[in-house]
Write a structure and sequence with these properties.
Elements: E1 5-10, E2 23-29, H1 36-59, H2 65-86, E3 90-95, E4 99-106, E5 109-116, E6 120-125, E7 135-140, E8 143-147, H3 153-167
Helix pairs in contact: 1-2
Length: 177
């Protein structure tokens, strides 16, 4: 799997207020190709090259090029910030003997859901069209939660297999050992 999914076994979960026993922790993250430092370097390099070319044309009398160069860099800054912000999304799935907890953290807000493990099931829904992504959901008693929305298709399939191994089917709870 790529860097988007990390599996971590834990020995107990007393700090989470859940029953003691084996716990499996799955960390899902979008991941960014750029760090804040490299994003700044990228934007500064693009701005320098853009303003160098725009300055040359402004010097030759084509001054209207400068405002468009400024707009171009402003849109580049906006796009890089949006990309960096969306890369901060994280999901943690904690599986204990009794429950499944999904914690979602993003710049837009945090939330968590708890499902009883014995009554839960994992479903990988086929995509509605050829180029659309599949949907991976945890379902229990009429409630559903989509997980791994930001993962690649291969990572989502691998996560579905791993979750099915840990969660099992309804009325079936495999050992977490």
């Amino acid at each position: 799997m790529s860097r988007g999914v990390i599996y971590e076994p834990e020995s107990g979960s007393e700090s989470l207020g859940q029953s003691a026993g084996p716990t499996r922790r799955l960390e899902l993250s979008r991941g960014n190709a750029l760090t804040p430092k490299t994003a700044c370097l990228f934007v500064c390099t693009a701005a320098a090259a853009t303003f160098l070319v725009a300055g040359f044309f402004a010097y030759r009398g084509f001054w209207p090029v400068l405002p468009f160069a400024g707009l171009e860099i402003a849109f580049l800054i906006w796009a890089v910030r949006a990309s960096m912000r969306s890369g901060m999304q994280r999901e943690t799935i904690l599986i204990t003997e009794a429950s499944i907890t999904v914690q979602h953290r993003s710049p837009d807000g945090d939330w968590h859901l708890v499902f009883p493990r014995h009554w839960s099931r994992v479903k990988l829904h086929a995509p509605p069209a050829v180029l659309h992504p599949s949907r991976l959901t945890l379902e229990s008693r009429g409630r559903a939660c989509e997980v791994g929305r930001f993962l690649t298709e291969d990572d989502r399939r691998d996560l579905a297999v791993r979750l099915k191994q840990l969660v099992g089917n309804v009325n079936e709870s495999p050992a977490l050992d």
